[in-house]
Amino acid sequence: MTEAGAEYWSARDLMPLLGYETWRRFEESITRAKFTAANQNQPIESLFVGTVKKSEGGRPAEDIHLSRYACYLVAMNGDPRKPEVAAAQSYFAIQTRAAEVQAPPAKPSGAELLAMAVIEAQAMIAAKDQHIAELEPKADYVDTFVADEDLITIRTLASDLKIGENELRAILLDRKWIYKQESSRWSESKQRKEPVYRYSAMADKKNYFHAVLAHDAPRFKGEVMHTLKITPAGAAAVTRLVGQLRRAADAFKSVEGPAA
């Protein structure tokens, strides 16, 4: 309850109940829920109230206080591939149908009923899946540089590894961890077309990278532009890869001997 007595639910607490392990991924569902609310002329400011919550490590973390209706919208805008989200959406669909055929006017119906049902759905999800799968033990690099829910840019990781950004990107391209797409965009300042590149993860490396959508940027070949960032698991894997390449280079130098 807020100081004013309003009922709310923490987005951080709702996140694991809907099967999400990282705040970044869950935040995408919240953003879509806000768009849905805006399209229905709902007061976003009172449905989604930004706040800060202390994490288990004691560090402040971004949080959002969700109204009952906001909880419902977040669940309905979640990733249906997640069993928890699919269960919640199925539950809401059943309740919607039940609300449509109910005759007694005293009972809530439609969106109001669904908003109230989110609390029951949370309990059902929690009972269905009592534990979240243990994450892979993280490499020392992740513990040192990257928080569990953080993403890191290629530039930042390259700087941490004492390697050039372009060199690191070239390694990832050469190893087929990522691929590059090229387009062009008119530059007002230069009065000519300039090349524009977009980098994406290869299918088998999806868990190493995350495409952060930039809806306010110009479209790329008709699609939403994105910036490719590295996940904690990806940061650990790239660090190992660079270490292997460096050791291989050192071994080659020792075999080749000093330059004449």
From TrEMBL:
Domain Antirepressor protein C-terminal intervals: 130-236
Domain spans labelled Bro-N: 5-88
Protein name per the record: Antirepressor protein C-terminal domain-containing protein
Species: Glutamicibacter halophytocola
